[in-house]
Amino acid sequence: MFRTALRNVLAHKARLLMTVLAVMLGVAFVSGTLVFTSTLSDALQNTARKGFDNVDVAIQRGGSDRADGAPGARPALDQKLLETAAHLPGAASATGTVSGFTAIADKHGTMIGDGFSTLGGNYSPGPNGTDARYPMRSGTAPKGPHEIALDAHTADRGGYKVGDTVRISVDGPVREQKLTGVFTTDDARVGAGGSLALFDTATAQKLFAAPGRFEEIDIKAAPGTSQAALKDAVEKVLPQGTEATTGRQLADEQAKMIAQSMDGMKTGLLGFAAVALFVGIFIIANTFTMLVAQRTKELALLRAVGASRRQITRSVLTEAFVVGAVAAVTGLLAGIGIGAALRSLMNATGAKVPDGPLVISPSTILIALVVGIVVTVLAAWLPGRRAAKIPPVAAMNSVHATATTKSLVVRNIIGALFAGAGTAAVLVATGMSDGKVTMGAGAALLLIGVFVLTPLLSRPLIALASPVLRLFGISGTLARQNAVRNPRRTAATASALMIGLTLITGLTVIAGSVQQGIDKMATSALKADYVVSMATRSPLSPDVAQKLAAVDGVTASSPLRNSPSRIGADTEYLTGVNGKDFGRLTQLDFTEGALGTLDGDRAVVDASLAKFKGWHVGSRLPVTFEDGKKGTLTIGGIYQGNQVIRGIILDNGTLAPHQKHATDMQVMVKTAHGATPEAKDSLVKALGKNPAITVADKKDVSNAIAQTFTLMLNMVYGLLAMAVIVAVLGVINTLAMSVFERSQEIGMLRAIGLDRRGIKRMVRLESLVISLFGGVLGIGLGVFLGWAAGELVSGSLPTYELVMPWGRMAVFLAVAALVGVLAALWPARRAAKLNMLQAIKAE
Amino acid sequence: MTTTHSGVTFAGRSTAVAARATDLSKVYGQGETQVVALDAVSVDFRQAQFTAIMGPSGSGKSTLMHCMAGLDAISGGSAKIGDIELTGLKDKKLTQLRRDKIGFVFQAFNLLPTLTALENITLPMDIAGRKPDRAWLERVVETVGLSGRLKHRPSQLSGGQQQRVAVARALASRPEIIFADEPTGNLDSRSGAEVLGFLRNSVRELGQTVVMVTHDPVAASYADRVIFLADGRIVDDMPDPSADMVLERMLGFSGGGNTSGSAARPRTPGLDATGRVN
Lengths: 843, 278
Hints:
The complex is a heterodimer of chains A (843) and B (278).
Chain A: H1 2-11, H2 13-51, E1 57-61, H3 79-86, E2 91-97, E3 99-101, E4 103-104, E5 118-123, E6 136-139, E7 147-151, H4 152-158, E8 165-169, E9 174-183, H5 188-191, E10 195-200, H6 201-208, E11 216-221, H7 227-235, E12 242-246, H8 247-294, H9 296-304, H10 309-348, H11 362-388, H12 405-431, H13 436-464, H14 466-470, H15 473-483, H16 487-524, E13 530-534, H17 542-549, E14 554-567, E15 570-577, H18 582-585, E16 590-593, E17 602-606, H19 607-613, E18 620-624, E19 630-639, E20 648-651, H20 652-655, E21 664-671, H21 677-686, E22 693-697, H22 698-741, H23 743-751, H24 756-793, H25 806-833, H26 836-841
Parallel strand pairs in A: 5-10, 7-9, 15-20, 17-19
Antiparallel strand pairs in A: 1-11, 1-12, 2-11, 3-5, 4-8, 6-9, 7-10, 8-9, 13-21, 13-22, 14-15, 14-18, 14-21, 16-19, 17-20, 18-19
Helix pairs in contact in A: 1-10, 2-8, 2-10, 2-11, 2-22, 8-11, 8-16, 8-22, 10-11, 12-13, 12-24, 13-16, 13-24, 15-24, 16-22, 16-24, 16-25, 22-24, 22-25, 24-25
Chain B: E1 17-28, E2 35-46, E3 50-54, H1 61-68, E4 76-81, E5 84-85, H2 91-101, E6 102-105, H3 117-121, H4 123-128, H5 134-143, H6 159-172, E7 177-181, H7 189-206, E8 210-213, H8 217-220, E9 225-230, E10 233-239, H9 243-256, H10 269-272
Helix pairs in contact in B: 5-6, 6-7
């Protein structure tokens, strides 16, 4: 039987082409993702490891409360500890490091890099007078408060040479530094496209920590001393609240972190690959159903001469296996190509990807092959079973066995049950406070139900198009009838397109609505004309708020100052504001109490926090400030929080005495004449045209929110495009098969006088009708699911409001139509070129 | 020469020519594999006459019909429908010619399964975008006896009924000539006789011109004239044939040994020949 199956595959090469392509695309997507992420992950991990070459043991502030900034004395990593460490037995040298955010302007004043990884650090010369981490390419190390060195990539991007003056900003004020050197580095963050500026140690300490303090001390072992032995030695001199870690451990930790962050990306991409493969299943199932139908006589003959049902099924599945294997292998090769291409593409767009070999792990190969073959064989399973049910007597019948209406009735009942239950679950979920699971299950049920019902829906929905189709004369009429001729096939073809469009439309609806909601919330609560913040959302120096308050025309201003505190057992962040101006800068919606005058121990709290804690107006909160002193806050009002303003808000006058090193997250500014270019100009000028600081009016805030959503949507569109491409293959496949099956009819039509144009038009219109059918279903379902998911969101986003993306929806429908037209190109040409005589004579 | 049907007296034989082949040649392939299917055939098909083309397999009878009907290209000579020369016509013009001037009845696959019987009958006119002549359509439908079945789809009709729909379609647009290619090849003898009867009636009563290719002597006996082809040449022309005469002539071919007779074996004459020959 295997030989029969193989012969069949070879005999139907052309008809299996689209199936192979569809599986191949899915597999290529999967293996491309795997190759790309593991290559990237490996390369990043390698560079990360290289970064720890000079570190055998590192001393850092203690593990548990290292990051949360809770109040209490900070353990000191000072010069004394550095020297002690350097002279430990087994230590060759010790380096103290500090680092922090440092924005670097290019010659036009705009910041270099995207802000995610714009760093500053200290150049710490070892015994030989150089810092092994940062070999100088040109110039010398920075010395004194006014000098700086830049990494080579950043210097090139900014067009800076040794001797130039570079404008930088650490926490607000602009500093002008002389560039003394350009260095190279293995730092993974620089390798990934970040920038790094180096100061001498004293300057860096002042900027990023406190004079004489380090954030980390790295110790290099003397030759012959193991990292573990050195760690033991270090641990004997560790002050309270600090810990020692070996370089290998740190490297492993970082490698693990990189792998984890890659995993997120990988899962996301594989999710989209799964959608593409799922769409492919419809095409495979369709193809094998058609092949089985066309071979009814042949299969019946096999049964008549003694093949068992199981043998028939197995022969169809063997065919699927061969097809799947071919597709998986070509897909894997294409995927490897995609992986390699993606890397160079990312390099070309500026996001630097560290060099490294292309990683094709055995698991990638295995997964690609298994996915391709399993998907194909699974999709061919039902057609295979159907093939086995062909009675031997069918070999003698001239009429091909047609699907009975009974099976469609069963199908419709099942579909209606699924769709009904799904719709009900989705509707119920919209009324629940936590309906995510119900909604997800309902959406899945509904989708399955609609898949099952598509054959039933095809007739009435396509009938709706008949008035338009009639305009195209007989070609239109024939196209409509051909489209509903085999409802299962039409349904499977349209479903493939439906899936992609459902996802695309649903996400567009949700994203658009949520964006509007967030936008409204952020801007409606804001009376300030401008919000000033660091481009990277890192803290501003209080200096900025002072400078802004002093600008001519500024009528009110307030920083949003962050300070950790402890209330009861929990760490809570307090937000200090200018109590005098706060009311003029915001328009908060108070559910209880009022803003009143913020001063003394009076504070206002956002509603969700108050609800969570059970606080009310008049509640008195015992608070431990960041310097460890205790006090009490009284709640004067409870407001609706939003993206910008939330948490516990009190007057800066109350907070200031407890803060040694105040930092502001944002500064809100109101000007006399509202948001005008002149006002913005004077604010920017007052800040010394700082490259790292953005002065945003309400529109900028909206745009920034919109931009995030647009970026996300565009990425999703790009990834879902794959599913649509696979769907196009499906439409081509179905049409080509239909043209092949109907070649006699087409020959007859040509003979009695339908010209080539008419034939082409007939095929094209059929394609258009099927595609639009899938498009309408997909868009409809997408809107429904988008609306339902939005109802869930609206619980946590009070300003949420359904926004129908009419323009986008029209575009999606146009895309569906385009899919139809494009997919019909080749089948229509084929149909028009059919040799009439052979078509009529063909048996 | 004008070829309007109106006013023609059907009782008499018209002498006008509906289609004419002059030195018509058809050659397939090239060089050593070259096959001459038609070798300078000249023949006239007169108006309002039922002509049968007979011959053993490979004699070129189907090729002659295909070339005359504009379904296949001609290698040499000339083929005319009415006064229109087919040689040199582009596909578009040929298609229009087939649509407007020619009717077809094939052995099988005559009807579109998605259309009703009536829609199938009016299909050529729908393609042309013309309105069918109501009165004529009714007459045709009545003649072929399909009045009660117009809303049926082909799958709901018997094989004989399907062929009658095909005959009605060929007649409905009043073509100058109808070509029928083994129209009874897939039918049982009863249904076959019915279809042949309708074709003959269309000639007698409606003044239609019909050219039919067949290898069945009984079918040929319905015609006014039988042309015999062998090896791409016309070897005989028999007016007012009977089944026995045709059979005798056919047996003469196979006996003559210049063609392999097996493929051209006619139906057993004893079963259905008697009584049907007029």
